[in-house]
Specification:
It is a single chain. This protein is an all-alpha fold. Among the domains are: about 150 residues, no CATH class; about 100 residues, no CATH class. It is built from 19 helices and no strands. The longest helix is centred in the first third of the chain and has 61 residues.
Length: about 425
């Protein structure tokens, strides 16, 4: 039935409204004519025709139910059919009694047999009119629209099922550190990696593309379920990693992720996960102040993840004048996790940036007695002892405008990183052989 309804050409609703309006106007004019100036009799005519029309539309509605409506109104329709069969089996005398009952409602000022039968005809005409009005309105306007809406809903349910499968597969393939918000989104390790190819293929299937397209259409109408929004923001978020850094496509995807994550935060502002993801994307977009604002708000929540202070210790390095706050948050994190190399490295960067400011203010050359310099070298050394790869990171950040640019020619700085750079290069050559 649904398939048939969805193919039927629907009637323009405006036509139905015009017909209904015209019928109301004609009924009022007809009632005034029959009432012959009497308010009571005019009201009686209006009530009689309205009641008959309403009963006709009710019967018409019950006889045109389909699809899910059958569960609710199906038994009622069967009752009407049984009632109709019973009426058909009544004797002529009983039918005449029914006509007499209706005929007792005199629509004219004087009682007569002709007036009684006119009332029967009047009521019957309006009842049949109500039936066919509802019948044609349902068959050519409402039912096709309902069938089309059900078809779209079924398609949406099919898509959400498929996207759920994609999300489950994604959870198996994406590192748990990323899924939990533990680390930033990094580039795939290599295009030739089979798992990476499968993950990218899963995120860009036709079903996922169509699902996201539906979400874009429905969100403008304000009718998108929260479950759809949850999946849409997650898909946009994970798609970021499959666009080349600094490319227009990457920027567009990051902005799209911000748009959808912001929507879910507005709906559920107490869930920390979307806020963490939004802060991460802000960081990718170099919107560091907005990123820090979100993280500091999360940090005040006793239920926030324990790694928030570590993130603050990193992102505050990029906010002018917040180096001391970056050190404070990193130190707080170290009290709980004392052997975290990245946190030690971030502290070193913050002290080095403070040392640069100190040199700029005093307009002096290298001040080896500076406390900021000593702390920068101390924490750099500790981080490299835990992970020698930080030596390469330090070298990269000793270039112009990097955290360690003020130490680029510092003998102590070079003595800390050089042995590890040489060792790492030797290991790399050995591996290549």
């Amino acid at each position: 039935m649904t398939a048939v309804m969805s193919k039927r050409k629907s009637l323009n609703p405006i036509v139905s409204y015009i017909i209904l309006f015209s019928s109301v106007v004609c009924t009022i004019a007809w009632s005034i004519l029959i009432g012959l100036g009497s308010i009571e009799r005019t009201s009686l005519v209006l009530i009689t025709c309205s009641t008959a029309f309403a009963l006709g539309t009710l019967i018409g509605f019950v006889f045109t139910v389909f699809g899910d409506e059958m569960n609710t109104f199906g038994k009622m329709r069967d009752s009407f059919i049984a009632l109709a069969s019973g009426v058909a089996g009544l004797s002529i005398a009983k039918t005449a009694e029914l006509g007499g009952l209706l005929g007792s409602i005199q629509l004219f000022q004087q009682k007569s047999e002709a007036g009684a039968w006119f009332t029967v005809l009047f009521v019957t005409t309006y009842g049949i009119s109500g039936f066919y009005f509802m019948y044609f309105a349902r068959e050519f306007t409402l039912n096709p629209a309902l069938a089309e809406a059900r078809k779209k809903l079924e398609r949406k349910n099919e898509l959400i099922s498929r996207v759920s499968e994609v999300a489950a597969e994604m959870a198996k393939k994406v590192p748990i550190r990323v899924l939990s918000g533990r680390e930033s989104i990094d580039e795939p390790e290599g295009d030739g990696d089979e798992a990476t190819k499968k993950l990218k293929a899963a995120l860009y299937t036709d079903e996922v593309n169509e699902f996201l397209s539906i979400c874009e259409d429905e969100i403008s109408k304000g009718s998108l379920p929260i479950d759809f929004i949850n999946k849409a923001w997650a898909l946009h978020y994970y798609r970021i990693r499959f666009n080349k850094k600094d490319s227009p496509q990457r920027l567009e995807q990051e902005e799209k992720a911000v748009e959808w994550i912001t929507r879910i935060i507005m709906i559920d502002p107490l869930d920390p996960l979307p806020q963490i993801k939004l802060a991460e994307v802000y960081g990718l977009l170099d919107r560091d102040e907005e990123c820090v604002f979100l993280l500091e708000r999360l940090e005040r929540d006793i239920e926030s993840p324990q790694y928030i202070p570590q993130w603050l210790g990193f992102y505050l390095l990029f906010v002018e004048g917040r180096e001391e706050d970056a050190i404070k948050y990193s130190m707080d994190y170290l009290k709980r996790f004392p052997d975290e190399g990245p946190t030690l490295f971030n502290i070193s960067r913050a002290y080095s940036q403070l040392y640069r400011k100190e040199q700029n203010v005093k307009l002096l050359g290298d001040n080896h007695e500076s406390e900021n310099r000593k702390k920068a070298l101390e924490y750099l050394s500790k981080s490299i002892q835990l992970d020698s790869s930080f030596a390469q990171f330090a070298k990269e950040r000793s270039e112009s405008n990097g955290s360690f640019d003020v130490l680029a020619q510092d003998p102590d700085f070079l003595s800390i990183i050089s042995p590890h750079l040489e060792k790492n290069e030797t290991d790399r050559r050995s591996d290549s052989k």
